[in-house]
Amino acid sequence: MFWGFSEALDLVEEYKKIRPKDTPLPDSLDILLFGSGDPRHILATAATLWRHPQVTVNFYIVEGCIELIARHMLLVAIALEDPEQLSTRGKTHLFMDLFGNSLIRPYSNAYLNSKAKVLTNIVTDPEYAQRYSPIFNYEALRYKERDQLEDVFRFWTNAREHVFNIARYWEDRTRAQLGVRYDHRNGAFDWDLQMRLRENGAKQICPQEYKHWRETGIAFTFPEYEQSDPNKTFAVGLVRKGKTYHHRGSVGDNSTGPFISFGQRCPEERLTRSKHGVNDFRSTDITERNIMQIMYEIKEKQAYQFDSKDIHQYGPHKLDTGKNLNKHDARTEVLEATRYDGPMVGCENLKIFFLSVEDVVRVQEDARYAGKFDAVFVAANYFRLLKTGFRANWKPDCLLCFETRQLTTFSKDEIGEHNEAIKTFAKHEVLQPVTNFAINKNYSVHFYKQLRSD
User: Fold this and answer.
1) Radius of gyration of the chain (CA)
2) Which partner from 71, 76, 213, 235 sits 20 to 30 angstroms from 133, CA to CA?
3) How far, in Å, CA of 426 to CA of 419, rounded?
4) Could you give the CA distance from residue 395 to residue 100 in angstroms, rounded to a whole number?
């Protein structure tokens, strides 16, 4: 929950790989994201759509709770913010803060407060939505779910009644998970990193950033920033009670982390160099580089030219992050941010359709989607929900992307069992592997393509 366990994919490029050579792309591509957890694939794809102006990409989002839909909207909105109000670097660090940190900068909190009001207008006023965010389509949401979205966005605004003590929830949950090992948690954290994550292939994550995240819930740190305000986008199960809200506290992932989506690989191999297990760059630094490319290409509609001065390099260093202030009570004096209420920047050949939470169960058998999807991404946690009738929704040449548990803290046996389940499902559905399983390599996503049209 809140982030995925596989790298961000440019799904137009992945789809091109299964097409016959020199075959043009269709005029439109319909892509289903089945529980992706975050908009990484949307943003990675959007960043390169300037290369395919003749193709319209329609993403259909299915998530298990309404708060994840709200986060999708927020994080996409950051990428599409007016560049005159927010620079590429500003977007990058704001995105990282709200995406992966339990405590955020006062500026990020002020932005969230401002943007939540805009998002409220988007889901309550169709004419406003058409003017300011035509990229979003929420017609498939039930009226009850739209009301729930409105409640989520209102909770994100700063008011005395909107209390979210994420630091306490994080500590309580860590204590409950570790039990008697809590007093020796640094050893437990190191075991999970070295014997699970790194052993499974997530080698870019550094000990100091991982342990700091496990201890505090703050994944991405830079010396010029200090996180102090609760990230209310991590709240789930929100129920409005008059002016106050009840919620389930912290229920997202707190063992793998938000380092996988953007922080494992990049085109510059020198950034992933390691000597004796010590990386030159943190996963945080790689995340910064990759998100900066996405933000730049969405804005400029041209290829990003990497400059090492654009990013930090703190691979072997442990930063003095200071004391987390944990201002969990609603701030009475909020840092005033610019009002981010202008129209989102144009991305004419991209549309995002948010489906009902109930579609997690029924989308696979819904006649409205029969033979609709050109590509489908299935998150690891949603694989068990797949049904035999799902293939009725795939086009004859559909690309199937199954997320594995490879880059997580699952054991090798658990990872292997999940991989075998994917292969069994693929065999039953007569899918042809696109991933080369013949070589001795582990993958965070297994790719297949549809072979039959009946």
Assistant:
1) 21
2) 235
3) 11
4) 35
Residue 267 pLDDT grade (very low, low, confident, very high; cuts 50, 70, 90): very high
pLDDT(148) > 70 = yes
* Nearest-angstrom CA–CA distance, 124 and 295: 28
| C-alpha 186: how far from chain center | 27
Contacts of 382 (CB under 8 A, 6+ apart): 34, 35, 64, 360
**pLDDT for the residue numbered 341:** 83
Q: Fill in the amino acid letter for 232.
A: K
The angle formed by the CA atoms of residues 318, 324 and 326, to the nearest 5 degrees, is 155
Q: Tell me what the mean pLDDT of segment 307-313 comes to.
A: 83
The Cα–Cα gap between 181 and 183 comes to 6
51: left (phi over 0), alpha (psi -120 to 50) or beta: alpha
**Alpha carbon distance 14, 292 (integer Å):** 21
Contact 11, 31 (CB under 8 A): yes
Does 320 have pLDDT greater than 80?
no
Task: Note the pLDDT of residue 412.
Answer: 96
pLDDT at 385 over 70: yes
The token pair at 358 is 């109930």
What is the rounded distance in angstroms from the CA atom of residue 370 to the CA atom of residue 368? 6
0.70 exceeded by the pTM? yes
In 3D space, the residue among 153, 123, 154 whose CA is nearest the CA of residue 140 turns out to be 123
- The predicted-structure confidence for 399-430, as pLDDT tens digits, reads as follows 999 999 999 999 999 999 999 999 999 999 99
* pLDDT at 454 exceeding the cut of 60: no
Residue 409: how many other CB atoms lie within 10 Å = 19
> CA-CA distance, 342 to 344, in Å (whole number)?
6
